[in-house]
Design goal:
It is an enzyme of class 3 (hydrolase). Its EC number is 3.4.11.-. This is Aminopeptidase. Keywords: Aminopeptidase, Hydrolase, Protease. The chain is an alpha+beta fold and 352 residues long. It folds into two domains: 3-67 and 167-344, Zn peptidases (Aminopeptidase, 3-Layer(aba) Sandwich), CATH 3.40.630; 69-151, Elongation Factor Tu (Ef-tu), domain 3, CATH 2.40.30.40. The chain is built from nine helices and 16 strands. The strands form two sheets. Strands 1, 2, 3, 10, 11, 12, 13, 14, 15 and 16 form a ten-stranded mixed β-sheet that branches. It has a six-stranded antiparallel beta barrel with strand order 4-5-8-7-6-9. Helix 4 (169-185) crosses helix 8 and helix 6 packs across helix 9. The longest helix is centred in the middle third of the chain and has 17 residues, at 169-185.
Length: 352
């Protein structure tokens, strides 16, 4: 586990279409770990490791760069900055929170976010106090409509817990897996072409995976994402517990995976002694939501990492679960064959 790099990913700021900080970290870390780096037209970045097989599969693993956050919507005459959500920030995380605004020049401006609510308690105006008294002061500091706003959280490693605590673990944990897998596979000869993709704009409609898959046309797609751990529930109903391994997702409201691929993934994990949890999501969605519908369809599967306190100022993840996901992705990349793929597509006794 490279905790230093994971902390850098967490501390970087990136909302939908403004993912430069995370993209730059990933490109710098992986220039020497792949054969080619490409981007789609939304800014998703694809790291290509070419296989040596005569008829290699193209297998794509995705994780999204963007976090939930805000954009500057108005600047008032009193110097307050009003926001619009970018992604599903939880309503109970809008009051009295430290945030930082990234200006067009890259300067970071700290402030306190607060929220006015209607009589029913629902959020109305979300605003930031940066200590200014006038609009002119705010504009002189470099603030503009559209600037990125994120929680001002510094990633830490709580001693003795085996966990990491920071903002944007959805989905910087997945981005870390993408990067670490590239490092681990660097010197391995694989049959398949492996496409490790960090996508744009997942939190506003799973958009980046759609364009990346259209551009690269992989045979199989895996999304590496997260799911929220109900922190007070450690019962048999909780399939997202920390330190119990990554999750293999059976279903969410945007995709039911190819069943043969699902069974292959579970058997692969068992053979490699990789712990996993079997989960389902009644809501939500991942990069696979759009990706599996490209062309005439793509066999696809979600690999999940459990988190506590998703879509807020900070989340908690297990370091061992993240390492576990890295091992699982490496195993899938190395063991999938074209024969497996053809079997996944046999819906009526065979494909001619």
């Amino acid at each position: 586990m490279n905790e230093t790099f994971l902390r850098k990913l967490s501390n970087a700021d990136a909302i939908a279409s403004k993912e430069t900080e995370v993209r730059d970290l990933l490109v710098e870390a992986n220039r020497e770990h792949c054969d080619e780096i490409r981007c789609d037209h939304l800014g998703s970045v694809i790291f290509v490791k070419k296989g040596c097989g005569a008829h290699p599969l193209k297998i794509m693993f995705t994780a999204h760069m963007d976090e939930v956050g805000f954009r500057v919507r108005h600047i008032s005459d009193l110097g307050f900055v009003y926001l619009i959500k970018t992604g599903g920030v939880l309503d109970n995380c809008l009051d009295m929170q430290k945030v930082r605004i990234t200006t067009r020049s890259g300067k970071k401006l700290p402030g306190i976010m607060n929220c006015q609510r209607d009589k029913a308690g629902h959020p109305d105006d979300i605003y930031v106090d940066l200590g200014f008294e006038t609009r002119e002061q705010a504009e002189k500091a470099g603030l503009e409509i559209g600037d990125m706003v994120t929680f001002d959280t510094t990633c830490v490693l709580p001693e003795g817990t085996g966990t990491i605590m920071g903002k944007a673990m959805d989905d910087r944990t997945g981005c870390y897996v993408v990067s670490k897998v590239l490092e681990k596979l660097k010197d391995r000869r694989l049959e398949n072409d492996i496409l490790m993709c960090a996508t744009s704009s997942e939190e506003v409609g799973t958009r980046g995976a759609k364009t990346a898959v259209f551009q690269e046309d992989p045979d199989i797609v895996f999304a590496i994402d997260v799911a929220n751990h109900p922190e007070l529930d450690r019962s048999f109903k909780n399939h997202r517990q920390l330190h119990k391994g990554c999750m293999i997702e059976h279903y969410d409201k945007t995709m039911a995976p190819n069943d043969k691929l699902l069974q292959f993934a579970k058997e692969t994990a068992r053979k490699a002694n990789i712990s996993f949890q079997e989960d389902m999501l009644s809501g939500g969605g991942t990069d696979c939501a759009q990706a599996h519908l490209i062309g005439n369809g793509k066999p696809a599967l979600v690999i999940g990492i459990p988190l506590r306190y998703c879509h807020g100022p900070a989340s908690i993840a297990s370091l061992s679960d993240i390492d576990n996901a890295v091992a699982f992705v490496c195993e899938l990349a190395a063991t999938l064959t074209r024969k497996n793929y053809e079997q996944f597509l046999q819906f009526t006794g065979g494909m001619k």
